[in-house]
Every structure is written in C-alpha cells, then in structure tokens.
TrEMBL record:
Name listed for the protein in its UniProt record: SURF1-like protein
Keywords (A to Z) from UniProt: Cell membrane, Membrane, Transmembrane, Transmembrane helix
Similarity section: Belongs to the SURF1 family.
Residue stretches spanning the membrane: 5-25, 198-218
Localization, UniProt: Cell membrane; Membrane
Its membrane topology: Multi-pass membrane protein
Main localisation: membrane
C-alpha cells in the first residue's frame, strides 16, 4: 500500500507547499503595498509648500502645494465616471499664478449637463497636490477636440493645448466664494491593492489541493483493503 500512495502523497504535499509559499509571498507583498500606501497618504496630507520651480514626477508626485492666482476660463473636459455619482467631466483649467506661471489645475467634477456651463475667470488661493496620473494607454481614444472631450489626463498634451507647464495640481481647497465644481482630492484609495485577494486565493487553493489529496489517498486505501 505504501508504494501505491507514495507518489500521490509527494505530489499532493509538493503542490500544497508551492501554493502555500505563493500565499506567504503575497502576504509579504501585502505588507509592502500597505507601507507604500501609508507613505503616499502621509505625503498627500503634509503641509503645503509653494509650487517647485521645476517639479518632476520622480521627486514631486503627490507633493502638497499652495498658490495664488487666476483660474482662467480656458478648460479641458475629461470624460469619466465616479462611483455613486455617475458619468461627468473633470474640469482641467489653465491657472496663472501671481508670479506669472501657467499651470494645469484639476478643479474637480461636474455632471454631464454642466459641461458647457460658463465658469468665468476667478482669482483664488488654492491648495492641492501635484500629480502625474497614469491614465493613458494604447486603447485610450484621442481627444475629440471638435466636441471638446478628452478621455484621459494626458499631461504633456493638455499642457500643449492650454499653453501651460506640464504640471498638474489636483485641487483640495480653494478660496473661491462660489464653488462651481466638486473637488476630488487625491488619496491612496484609487491605487490598486489586490494582494489580500491573492493571499486568500492561494491559501484557498492549498486547502482544496490538500483535501483532494486526502480524498485520493482514502480511495487508494479503500481499494487496497
């Protein structure tokens, strides 16, 4: 009987060991990802500073900044959808600072019907976070400039279209007396973290694998008897 069960036993225990090791690896990845997300949240919530002279994604991603100037009526409308709200547009405006810089300002969200609502130029002091979103890929449609609709936040293309620096501030707070958009401040909730699901998947498969191995050994044992 031992000769009949040795190969299934080795195969079963070996497969379970591999699945368990993958689950442990994903646990380690989960801890690593949670540490990164905590660091991002801490960066986002730090005290704001003036916009750096030449910010870069590598050094300044999520950096909190503050600036005063003119929010112009030069806009880009980025089509999208927000959970529990529905479809609408992100309003990306050209923002002229008091020292003459032209930057991109993500003012937040408006509904579909508010796309063409006039948003006159307004002076304001804003607080937000620098961001270089990773939204563009080979399947993203090109902007429909005739309809004034974009399908992702392409920083270089938006900067060229509005004649600004390729620097985007995502609005958190504004001194505007009348809010014409719904700001969507940055946080880490939009960053995928699926490692817990992978942990449960690998450990679940290991349990199933061991159960199938035990069932096979039981059947072999019955036939031997």
């Amino acid at each position: 009987m031992f000769k009949r069960i040795i190969l299934p036993l080795i195969f079963g225990l070996g497969g379970a060991a591999i699945l368990i090791s993958l689950g442990v690896w994903q646990l380690q990845r989960l801890a690593w990802k949670e540490a990164i997300l905590a660091e991002i949240d801490a960066t986002i919530a730090a005290d704001p500073v003036p916009v750096p002279a030449a910010p870069t994604p590598e050094a300044d991603q999520f950096r909190p900044v503050t600036a005063s100037g003119l929010i112009t009526d030069e806009e880009i409308h980025v089509l999208g959808s927000v959970k529990k709200i529905g479809p609408g547009y992100r309003i990306i405006s050209a923002f002229v600072t008091d020292d003459g810089r032209r930057l991109l300002l993500d003012r937040g969200w408006v509904g579909l019907t508010a796309k063409e609502t006039p948003r006159p130029p307004v002076r304001a002091t804003i607080t937000g976070n620098l961001h270089w979103p990773d939204e563009m890929n080979s399947s993203t449609p090109a902007p429909d400039l005739k309809a004034g609709i974009w399908f992702g936040r392409d920083i270089p293309a938006m900067a060229a279209h509005l004649d600004t620096e390729p620097v985007l501030i995502v609005l958190r707070e504004t001194s505007e007396s009348e809010q014409v958009t719904t700001p969507f401040p940055l946080d880490s909730s939009g960053i995928p973290n699926d490692h817990l699901e992978y942990v449960l998947t690998w450990f679940g498969l290991a349990i199933v694998w061991l159960g199938m191995t035990a069932f096979l050994l039981w059947r072999i044992n019955r036939k031997t008897l």
